[in-house]
Specification:
Order of helices and strands: HHHEEHHHHEEHH
Number of helices: 9
Strand order of the largest sheet: 1-2-3-4
Distance between the termini: 42 Å
CATH class of the largest domain: Mainly Alpha
Radius of gyration: 37 Å
Number of domains: 2
CATH topology of the largest domain: Outer membrane efflux proteins (OEP)
CATH superfamily of the largest domain: Outer membrane efflux proteins (OEP)
Helix content: 55-70%
Largest sheet: 4 strands, antiparallel
Amino acid sequence: MSLGAAFGLIACAPVKTASPQEAKVFAPAAWRAPIGVPAPISGTWWQTFDEPAINDLVEAALAHNTDILEAISRVEEARQQIRLSHSALLPTLDGSVGGQTNRSLGTTGITHTRSIQPELQASYELDLWGRLRTLENAAQMSYQASQSDRDNIRLSVASTTVRAYISLVSLDTQLKVTRDTAQSRRDALRVAEDRANEGYTSQLELTQAQSEYESAAQMIPELEQAIRQQENAIRLLTGTLPGDLHRGRELQTLTPPTVPGLLPAQLLRRRPDIQQAEQLVAAADLKLDARRDEFLPQVQLSSGIGRLYVNALDFDPVKVWDLGASVLVPIYSAGRLEAQVGVATAQRNQAAYSYRATALKAFGEVENSLSGVKRLEEQITRVHARRVTLARSLEIARDRYQGGYSSYLEVLDAQRNLFNTELSAIQIRENQLKNVISLYQALGGGWVPEK
């Protein structure tokens, strides 16, 4: 077939459309919230907490987490797919042995023929139009996407592990404050019981004191159960059975790491999930090219060589061979080839839109975390000021009660407000630390693409 005829066939293929314009992403010139001076982010960013317990947990999770191990297996699967695609570019060689026996009636009587034929057969498809090479390149891009997926899971597991540990020490702190509060209320309840028995206070004040003590005591087993579940969840992240966990410093002594700096335009190259989405678009586009190449002729070469052993020749071997070529030209496929191109185009467009969605999500996550840095600092300042004020209010309420100027209900109310504020301060501190972790994750951690 002439080259002109071949190009005539490819002209019958549907026109390849470019990726949708709506799928393109343009980075903003700057972040809405202020950010630090741009600088490299450490690959082991969790060490900036300066907490050995966190370092040990993250290292264990990266080595034994089942999601990471599963992702590593997917990388190996993709690598083998490259080998599979590359094998289509090379000749195949097969060995065969055929045997036959035949008993028939002829003019000379009954004849009994036996034969055996060992043979080597070779076949090879000429990749004239680059279709097979394109499929190999698509497998290469899918392999790179699997590596980016593995790295994204590693980043997610590391971030989740650090957040889970922060939640654990936050629960520890809440439990300590709750136990101290329960003990304080227990002591106050004893005083209220003595004063009620002596007739100095009413039964209403006594029942209120009993209610406040039971309220704090009820929270203790609830927090203990939450701690146990959090420990088990962290052990699951590290790929181990449920059990106790070693603690390091308390929550209030953990300082938030310095906010990392990164320009918006750098984000598209700094997150493994964005890289994965981009690589999947490239792989889908190559598969679309391969589908369009199916409109061109396929040339197949084949050959075989062997020996024929027949009883009529006293099994004296006879050399046999064959050599051939075939050209497969698509003429009519009832729309199958066109539909395959249409499917590949739709899949490429889906991958492009998925890339845009991933990138937009990434910008949103960074903006939210950056905004949270300042807002949470303001909340901590306010809650600390409120705690100081409520502590002073409790002292005043106790003095007024002891001086006989107010009832014990004012003391209980001041205690309740201070306790709730202390728990709120712990929660805000936890949120502050988690927000910085989320910012590191949103910026891609310390991930560096493999060359």
